[in-house]
């Protein structure tokens, strides 16, 4: 899923881009309003994050221009302008959300995930559609999983990894295959990126992360989901 991020402050832009990328989004960055409109026309992103006070064209102008041709694309304002009138103007222009700086990473992630769910609905994805991995039921369009009555929040990348393993049940998937699917072929990770992500994902979806039953490690080869398996072979953990 592609996100256009328009923000003139370099540190803020790079920080937000890192957060979005870690969640599994392809980020297109723009440092001013004019560049944002150029990138929007060229890339056609799934949703847009806009600062308000930017050179060339303000975030309000960019939002107004996008809304004239794409009335349904989700737009989030992320701005230091925190007066009620600023939010009112943003929502009247058609923004879906308004995040005030300074913000916390958890707040941004939660709101981005909410927008992603709306994107799935807008595309006609069935929020009730699911698949199971052991006793875990995953709802991709909702970025959630459930076990009994417990709800587990997932990132877009978490879902991508689980979908890939589920489609290839019984097969060992090497790291390059998982990276290319869930990070993109242009991403050049360090050797621990995938292992660290899998470790964090296991903490949320496994009953016992130290003895995983859903995402199993095949040492020296990669990872595997063994549909219906009760035990682990001696080279798995």
Account of the protein in words:
The protein has 237 residues and is α/β, with parallel strands linked by helices. It has two domains: 2-122, Response regulator (Rossmann fold); 131-224, Winged helix-like DNA-binding domain superfamily/Winged helix DNA-binding domain (Arc Repressor Mutant, subunit A). It has helices at residues 10-23, 33-43, 59-69, 84-92, 105-122, 156-167, 175-182, 193-205; strands spanning 2-6, 26-30, 47-50, 75-79, 97-100, 131-133, 136-139, 144-147, 150-153, 216-218, 222-224. The strands form three sheets. Strands 2-1-3-4-5 form a five-stranded parallel β-sheet, with helices on both faces. A four-stranded antiparallel β-sheet has the order 6-7-8-9, covered by helices on one side. The protein has a two-stranded antiparallel ribbon with strand order 10-11. β10 (216-218) and β11 form a beta hairpin. Residues 229-237 have low confidence and may be disordered.
Concise account of the structure shown:
41% of the residues lie in helices and 19% in strands. It has 237 residues and is of the alpha/beta class.
Summarize the SSE layout with pairings.
Elements: E1 2-6, H1 10-23, E2 26-30, H2 33-43, E3 47-50, H3 59-69, E4 75-79, H4 84-92, E5 97-100, H5 105-122, E6 131-133, E7 136-139, E8 144-147, E9 150-153, H6 156-167, H7 175-182, H8 193-205, E10 216-218, E11 222-224
Parallel strand pairs: 1-2, 1-3, 3-4, 4-5
Antiparallel strand pairs: 6-7, 7-8, 8-9, 10-11
Helix pairs in contact: 2-3
